[in-house]
Amino acid sequence: MVCSQPIFERTRVIENNQQLYLEKEGKLELFETKVVSPQETFPLHAIHDVSYRKLSSMYGMLYLHTHKGVRAYMVKEDPSPWMNELKAYL
Q1: What is the pLDDT of residues 35-65, one digit of tens each?
Q2: What ranges make up the beta strands (E) of the chain?
Q3: Residue from 68, 29, 76, 31 nearest 52 by CA
Q4: DSSP string spanning 57-81?
Q5: In angstroms, rounded to a whole number, what is the distance separating the alpha carbons of residues 29 and 55?
Q6: pTM of the entire structure?
Q7: What pLDDT is stored for residue 76 in this prediction?
């Protein structure tokens, strides 16, 4: 593995008439030939670009542009080092 980026999935649930948000952590892992997310694996030749947009002081969205469409991943820390590593392989 070359490097990894922590990603988060937020799920809204209702329990006892209260709205709660559950947060699950995963990793977006970059290998020399592929990118692996908790749900999918993309060979590098299937990735066109990567971008990032900050949403708030706490969260941002990392976008992976692939031949299957754009995949969005919620991040808490700046993904620039991970994105730079990926772009070196594209």
Answers
A1: 999 999 999 999 999 999 999 999 999 999 9
A2: 3-15, 18-30, 34-36, 41-43, 47-54, 60-66, 69-75
A3: 76
A4: SS-EEEEEEETTEEEEEEESS--HH
A5: 22
A6: 0.86
A7: 94
